[in-house]
Amino acid sequence: MKPCPFCAEQIQDNAIKCRYCGEFLDDRPRAGRHIVAGWPGLYGGFEYRSQAELWGWPLLHVAQGYDPRTGLPRVAKGIIAIGNIAIGLLAVGGFAVGGVAIGGVVLGLLAFGGIAFGGLAFGGIALALYLAIGGIAVSLMYAMGGLAAGSHAIDALRADAEFLRLLERWWPGIRDVFSGTGR
């Protein structure tokens, strides 16, 4: 009896393969072990680019996973871009940048996401130049949320009178909703 060089369990002297760990003990090359997070085959990913182009960008570009040549994440770039990382006029992805951006972390003129940066931003955390609506909303002009900061803000503790007048154009009776909030 001798110990297995891989798992240290006792095996027979003439063993070719360890019965405990499954490793071969002769001079065979060992198979590499690929560890990839997520679904099988995600490493290679997927990519589709439409033939139609506008301003040199594909009308639709879908890309996810990693580029096997470079090992870097694939980036979807197109008029409509969909992927883990997306850049386009309409961008949808985990990280999205575009005119209209939708996803986890987004930057756009119109941004919808978990963390949204933009001219108009809507999300869990919304940071905007003009209007931010979210759990935490910060804007240079108008902000609405659980915690809101801006020139004119509506949050759990206060409701700005000018912001309420602006909202009354589209939502008559909005003042009644915020009647208990200090002004």
Features:
mainly beta, two-stranded antiparallel sheet, five-stranded mixed sheet, about 180 residues, single chain
The rough form would be described as elongated
Distance between the termini: 85 Å
Which structural class do the helices and strands define? Answer: mainly beta
- Assess the beta-strand content as a share of residues: over 45%
Stretches with pLDDT under 50, minimum 5 residues: 33-37
Would you mind describing this structure in some detail?
The protein is mainly beta. It has a domain of 33 residues. The chain contains two helices and nine strands. The chain has a five-stranded mixed beta sheet. A two-stranded antiparallel ribbon has the order 1-2. A two-stranded antiparallel ribbon has the order 4-5. About 3% of the residues have low confidence.
Briefly characterize the structure.
The protein is mainly beta. The chain has helices at residues 161-168, 174-177, and strands spanning 2-3, 10-11, 46-49, 53-54, 57-58, 60-64, 75-139, 142-149, 152-154.
Question: How would you summarize the topology of this molecule?
Answer:
Layout: E1 2-3, E2 10-11, E3 46-49, E4 53-54, E5 57-58, E6 60-64, E7 75-139, E8 142-149, E9 152-154, H1 161-168, H2 174-177
Parallel strand pairs: 6-7, 7-8, 8-9
Antiparallel strand pairs: 1-2, 3-6, 4-5
